[in-house]
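Sequence, please.
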């Protein structure tokens, strides 16, 4: 066999190996647009929904004995305040909850004016971003307007020593189709190489899964 033929075969084999390595090193699914190509929202995101373990301040105007601070929503989704027993709170906006409390108190006092303020946020699962797998501190973190995957990774302490960041994937529920969709993430490029094109916008309910390296 000629030297030219051998060199050609070696080159082809090398290209095949590189191709396989590239396939094994990346997660499946399409990529999301990078932040620099997504217009940032100038206004607020969707109205906040109260979740289990949220902490509330409930103020009843001119009735301090009916007001309450540091009211934690119980795991069963309810709260108890003076004259209000086992009021469902989870799944409501603060405005909805204050109206329900107002109606309850109107049985005892005339025209109560109630305000509900969320002072410590946990949120429902649909409003959290969950980071699991090979990260320093896997966690569920409350979503905030214009949150990016970089923000979320900073919150959990970045990748672990053995993380395969470019094989990470994002799971997102598509409300229109009613199905989950899977997207590729390039977390190693973002966090280790500073590639800003790998930074993408997150949405409430997103789940980021980071596998460990195979070697």
């Amino acid at each position: 066999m000629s030297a030219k033929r051998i060199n050609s075969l070696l080159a082809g084999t090398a290209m095949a190996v590189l191709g396989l390595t590239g396939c094994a090193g990346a997660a499946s699914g399409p990529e999301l647009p990078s932040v620099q190509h997504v217009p940032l929202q100038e206004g607020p995101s969707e109205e906040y929904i109260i979740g289990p373990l949220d902490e509330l301040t409930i103020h009843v105007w001119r009735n301090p004995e009916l007001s309450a601070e540091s009211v934690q929503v119980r795991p069963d989704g309810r709260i108890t305040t003076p004259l209000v027993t086992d009021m469902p709170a989870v799944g409501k906006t603060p405005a909805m909850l204050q109206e329900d409390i107002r109606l309850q108190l109107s049985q005892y006092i005339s025209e109560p004016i109630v305000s509900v303020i969320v002072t410590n946020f946990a949120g429902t699962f649909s409003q959290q971003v969950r980071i699991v797998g090979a990260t320093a501190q896997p966690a569920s973190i409350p979503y905030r307007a214009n949150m990016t995957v970089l923000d979320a990774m900073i919150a959990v302490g970045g990748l672990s020593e053995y993380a395969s960041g470019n094989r990470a994937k994002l799971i997102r529920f598509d409300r229109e189709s009613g199905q989950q969709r899977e997207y590729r993430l390039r977390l190693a490029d973002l966090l280790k190489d500073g590639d800003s094109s790998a930074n993408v916008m997150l949405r409430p309910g997103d789940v980021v899964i980071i596998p460990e390296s195979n070697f």
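Confidence is low (pLDDT under 50) at residues 1-24.
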